[in-house]
Design a protein that fits this description.
Blueprint: H1 39-44, H2 57-62, H3 68-79, E1 89-95, E2 102-109, E3 114-119, H4 121-126, H5 129-144, E4 148-153, H6 154-159, H7 161-169, H8 176-179
Parallel strand pairs: 3-4
Antiparallel strand pairs: 1-2, 2-3
Helix pairs in contact: 3-7
Length: about 180
């Protein structure tokens, strides 16, 4: 078998546009450069800060079982001028409501007969529909006693505690349970 002949193709010379250099300035020169440590400081600008922040030590000492989303709602109530023990009560046991002889609620407003419950995503939504059905049953049991329950989801409480707490005090429920 005979070897194939090689084809040679002559390409036209590269076209150089006026005003555009062939290589960027400094290309091909190896010079030591100082890098500015901007990574961490620049990343701080893009982090989402929670308005309430972490719970302070005095709150942790008073309420060792309190969660961070509950602190966010507590903080929002303090920012709006409400006083714990006078205008609202935190972690109150209400007798004779629900499946057992008593039921613990997160925030209770005795003047308006309103309860605000902070719903943790894991405990109230990812454990299945049985837990959500229990929350709806509990809401109905409180309604029979003339007490309204408004749920605030954990992510909403951390993201915008003032807005969702104001909405809850008006009786508006934006939780996933209400939306179905």
């Amino acid at each position: 078998m005979a070897p194939r002949p090689r084809l040679s193709i002559k390409l036209p010379p590269s076209v150089r546009l006026p005003g555009i250099p062939r290589a960027p300035r400094g290309f091909g020169r190896f010079r030591e450069m100082a890098l500015l440590p901007r990574g961490e400081r620049a990343a701080e600008r893009f982090t989402v800060s929670e308005p309430a922040g972490d719970p302070p030590d005095w709150w942790r000492a008073l309420y060792p079982t309190g969660t961070k989303p509950e602190w966010a709602v507590y903080w929002a109530l303090l920012q709006m001028g409400y006083r714990d023990g006078e205008d609202f009560f935190y972690l109150v046991v209400v007798p004779g409501v629900g499946h057992s002889y008593w039921s613990q609620v997160d925030f209770f407003f005795p003047d308006t007969k309103l309860v605000i419950e902070v719903q943790g995503i894991y405990w109230h939504y990812t454990l299945g529909s049985e837990r959500q059905a229990r929350d709806i049953f509990r809401q109905a049991a409180f309604a029979q006693r003339g007490i309204e329950i408004v749920f605030i989801d954990e992510d909403d409480a951390l993201r915008a505690p003032l807005y969702y707490t104001r909405e809850a005090l008006r009786g508006r429920d934006h939780s996933k349970i209400r939306r179905g």
